[in-house]
Amino acid sequence: MPDETLLELHRVSKNFGAVQALYQVDLTVRAGEIVALVGDNGAGKSTLIKSVAGIHPISEGELRWLGRPVTVRSPKDASELGIEVVYQDLALADNLDVVENMFLGREMLTRSRQLDANSMERRALDTLDELAVTTITSVRRPVAALSGGQRQSVAVAKAVMWSARLVILDEPTAALGVAQTRHVLNLVTRLGEQGLGVLLVSHNLHDVFEVADRIVVLRLGQNVAEFDRRTATQAEVVHAITAGALARVPGQAGEADS
Amino acid sequence: MSTAQQTSENRGPLAALGDAARTRLLEIRNGELGSLPIVIGIILLAIIFQSLNSNYLTPNNFVNLMVQGAAMTAIAMGIVFVLLIGEIDLSVGYVSGVAAVLMALLLRPDDNQWPTAVVLPLAILTGAAIGGLHGLLITKLNLPSFVVTLAGLLAWNGVVLLLISNNGSIIIQDAVVVSLTSSFLPPWLAWALLVACVVGYAAVQLTRRRNRLASRLSVEPSLLTWLRVAALAIAGAVTVAVANLSLGIPYVFVLLGAFFVLWTYVQNRTQFGTWVFAIGGSLEAARRAGINTDRVRIACFMISSSMAAVGGIILASRLRSVDTNVGGGSLLLYSIAAAVIGGTSLFGGRGSAKAAILGALVIAAIDNGLGLLGLGSGQKFVITGLVLLIAVTVDALSRRGHAEAGKH
User: Fold this and answer.
1) FRET label pair with A46: which of A109, A149, B52, B186, CA 20 to 30 Å apart?
2) Per-domain residue ranges for chain A?
3) Average pLDDT by stretches of 10, chain B with 408 residues
4) SS3 of B35-95
5) Taking CB atoms and an 8 Å cutoff, what residues of chain A touch B264?
């Protein structure tokens, strides 16, 4: 497994006016690694992924991509680096089919500026095959006809197809039933196996313990703990989420792994 | 899916067709009715009106119906674009009026008469400019399209009155404009055009099939493709044969056919078309995909107003004059109703040029049939209103089935 470091956040802070949403946060995601980001409501999880995605550029600190410092000012910047975010609402157009959604805004065209529908369909099918998504029987049916898990798969496949090296998943199982959750978690594991970095934001510790390699806990915008999944217990993680010690000195907490 | 269809292809064409029929039946049960209810509706209307008045299904009335419904059809095709993005355009009636009056004024046979080849594009461009203005107000100032185009409905009605001022009514004498709805294709030309259309359609279908096979994608059974080509050929042949028993195919029919092909192409084969559907499905998803949604939305209002201008020209041609009422009356509501009856959703994301044409056919058939029965506007409006209600109900019920099919 490649041990290449994809994303590194070094003492990243973000404030909205007087509100300090993130305070000197450190985070590392390596290729082939699934990192879970957990924390209570308002812990700064959303702010953190939006900062990486270029929606809210960071106020202070350093963002490194493949070891080099980078600035991400827009979703397009993130996309060009190879960071794709799958938001909780998935941002799919219900009336479009799977292929159209996967290529939305980045359609392939023929030389005569027509849609190159066949090439797009082929590539979409190949990507779904690679990820072993077998539950979608027709890529030419509107996504409105798909189940929640299938829609999540489409959104993830879209991210992978655009040659993402790091996929950020925001609460991917929040709205799913048991079978669908199983399906999506398998998909997440497969992303890791294929050498992609995955940053999984979730409330559901059961899911987190099932797929994550490392668990990073945020509390009130700060790192409070970092666990190796194999050695951690749920009780420890819950304790960190609710009562983790807040550090005022930068870079003190959560250094167990680095 | 691909393997299933390929094996059925190996079992023989009939088995393949059986599979295709089963798939279609499943779709219908899931609420994807397509054009089925409306085609049944048109057949029912034809039977009812024919049994009430034997003059209904005659070649003369058939040609009449084509000409009567032409302006509404053109306007409805444009409105579909605005409905697709989940907006509404209430101004199309009087925008068509403005274009018609402008054209009539510039073509008046006096010293200042402009050439037809300049006036017609100018009238359509005026429509486009009006749509651009509506679109800018709606997207840049974030105003609801209902209000902006309602203001347009009033204001452009006013412009029609101002332009006509004390002329009362202007007679159209320009040969090109008049011939649009009162000249007919010679029978041989109508047949030649039909053959060209059928061959062209078959060529497009077969090329697409070949390309899909080349990309290792699933294809429908070839028999199904040929059945569709045959259906087009038969429907076209009946239309041409019946029309030729009377005066023939009117020029305006060919014009509408050309617009139908153009807008169907734009909706299904271009990036712009995909974006229009995406905006109707989820404006937020389209925006996050990096689409310049404002530009696409403005373009939709421009298409709507341009097609309204085309409708105005057709209307003026049929009436051979314009007066202060041009573009008023039932034209606006009939055009929107046509798009909706044809299966265009008022909530955006679903609709087609075909829907506009089929819906316009229903309304023209009712309007014409009730006229033949000697019924007045009162009865006409009540019945058309009921048909609209039925169409929307059928659609809503089938959607409910669709939504349930999605939850498995």
Assistant:
1) A149
2) 5-243
3) 44 68 69 75 91 90 92 97 96 96 91 88 97 97 96 95 86 92 95 96 93 89 90 94 94 96 96 96 89 95 98 95 87 92 89 94 91 86 87 77 49
4) CHHHHHHHHHHHHHHHHHCCCCCCHHHHHHHHHHHHHHHHHHHHHHHHHHCCCCCCCHHHH
5) none
